[in-house]
Design a protein that fits this description.
single chain; 11 strands; mainly beta; seven-stranded mixed beta sheet; 116 residues; four-stranded antiparallel beta sheet
Length: 116
């Protein structure tokens, strides 16, 4: 089992920055991919960015150039640096991990609200 706990959400104005962190614990050695998803009201959950164990990243076109995913293996954390935030970035952001066997793990989510 893998446990994920997000922190760092909040209310900011358009153009500002936020940094989300995801603390991972448990059997973290089984993780193949970590990432961030988001879900806005009335919309489906969507991938924001992901990072594989070999360092490959995948970033949604809507946030490319503004958001950066990173991993600190010493602290067992996964971060999402969000710059130049827009009102359309408002959503609940979820930390996600997938094991090598294909099991999915989710955090409880953290709210990000960007005012115009």
């Amino acid at each position: 089992q893998v446990q994920l706990r997000e922190s760092g959400g909040g209310l900011v104005q358009a153009g500002e920055s936020l940094r989300l962190s995801c603390a991972t614990s448990g059997s973290i050695f089984i993780i193949k991919v970590v990432g961030w998803y988001r879900q806005a009201p009335g919309k489906q959950r969507e991938l924001v960015a992901s990072l594989t164990s070999d360092g490959s990243t995948n970033t949604a076109d809507s946030v490319k150039g503004r958001f950066t995913i990173s991993r600190d293996n010493d602290r067992n954390t996964v971060s999402l640096q969000m710059n130049s935030l827009k009102p359309e970035d408002t959503a609940v952001y979820y930390c996600h991990a997938m094991s090598r066997a294909g099991y999915n793990f989710w955090g409880q989510g953290t709210q990000v609200t960007v005012s115009s």
